[in-house]
Every structure is written in structure tokens, then in C-alpha cells.
Target: DUF1275 domain-containing protein
Amino acid sequence: MKVSPSLKASLLLLVVAVLQQANGMLPVPKVVGIASTRKETKSLEQVLLSVRGGFNNRNNRNLQNNDKNSNRNNRNNRNNNNNRRRRRGEPEPVIDPNIRSISAKTCVAIGTILALNSGIINGVCLSGLISPQNVKQGSTAVTAAWSNSALGLASGDTSLFLINLKCILSYMTGSFISGFVNANPKPFEVNIASFRTALMIGSMLLYGSSVLSEEEDTNVFIFLAAMANGIQNSLTSTTTGNLVRSSHFSGITSDIGTYTGQAFRGNLENWKKLRVFMTLAASFWTGGYISYSLAMNYGNKVLLFSSILYLLLALVIGSV
Model:
């Protein structure tokens, strides 16, 4: 049986009217007129769009109401919590103005500068150019120091054993100072007072290292530099959840190899970390490269420059 176009249009208008009533848009008309011609009938596309628009409007209103109710509930919960604390005699929660959040990008930028600085310090100490006794001893990485101290003791070379043991203990002492001063670190949060204290101590250690490097009968300047690097590496590691390790590169070297191998197999989960580690490693290497010419031209004043860098960071840490 064929259905006339006018009847189709009338049925469609009736369905639309019922849907609009359910949607709260328009009241259902008491009488639905029957269109006599196709020209008086809306196209199916226009009708469906109008119905869909009605539903969208209702959904938007519901979302807005839900947001208002959620905000109201949050305010009520805060007020209730405050009232309960007052009844129990508990103090109001205090927001510590000494704690500042720091972004990952800022951490990487500062870490890159510090890695360059550590590369310079280590290169100056390892080259022997500023040591009157031409002692060549690294002040950042202590992996070799562990083995050299063991070899020195095994071979009966007491001086080799002692100098490497002192380097290990110096680096560890620097990390101890950092942990003691910044006892409760949280990832990507900076305790301004703790950081300033630690960096000021590091600055004084490097200043002392610069002065004592002129002494003929001592290698204390190497141990002071190692302590400063221990402070630096501990601060950057604990603040960034080990994302930025700025003065010790054995672990970073291993991670670069691991993440590169994963990337070759299509696993890019650690791609961002790989980029950070490669940046830090390149900065440290660059510091070692330029340390030779710096030591040749400026001597022990190079360590003084590093001391000033720590001091500047300590002064501006609150505004980073």
C-alpha cells in the first residue's frame, strides 16, 4: 500500500512534536495540521537537526547544573571540615610559603647548567693542571674510586687507597649534607630555605677548594670539590625523582643505552627521559672539554667561578 507524501509529513511532524515535548522544548499542539503539499513540509534533515539541537541544549543545561552542584558540594565539604577542626580544637592547615613548585622543564634547564659546571670542576681536578703536585683525581664520579681504593689496599699502595677512600667519603658527605638540610623532598617541589642553605654550603666548599688548590702539600681541594658535587647531585636527583642527575653519569650512561635499544624496537615510552639524559650528558662532556682551556688560562680561579654560580643560584632560587 502506498503512503502519500502528505501523510508521511504529518506522521513525521507528530513524532517530532512528541519528542520536543519529552525534551521540554515545546508543548504538544492539540491539533496537528496535515500538510497538503511537499513544499509545506520541512526536510527530514532539518527536522532531525532541530531535535538533536534540543537534546544538546538539555544536555548542556544538565552539565552546567552538575558543575554548580559540584562546586556547591565542595564548598560545603570544606566548610564542614573546617567546622569539625574547630570543634576538635585543631589548628587551621597552613600553606608553607617556603615551598614552591617547579616544572620539569625548569629542572632540566637548571640541571643542564649544573652538569656543565660539574664537567668543568671534574675536568679541572682530573687534569692535574691546578695541583702543585700534579695530582689527577676526579671529583664527580666515584665508581672508579671504589675500584682504585680496593686495588691500592690489595697492592699495598697506601697513598692510592687513602686518596680514593677520601674521595668516596667526601662525595658521600656532600650527599649527607644535602639529605640533612633537605630531609623531606618531594618531586618537583623546592624548599627554598633548604636549597639556599645547601647551595651556600656548596659555594663555600668550592671557594675553599679554589684557595687550597695553591697549597703544596695537600690535596684537600679535590675532596672539597667532591663534597660540593655530592650536594649538587643529591639536590637535583631528589627534587626531580632521579630525572636530573647532574654530577654522576654512570647510571645515565646505562639508561641512555637501555632507552636507545628500546627505541630501536619501537618502544618510545622513555623517549622524553632519553632526550633529557642525552642533554645532560652532552652538557657534562662539554664542561670537561672547555675545562682544559679554562684551567690553562685562569688556573684555580675556575673553581671560584663555580662557587659564584652556586651563590647566584642560591639567591635566585625563590624566583625561579
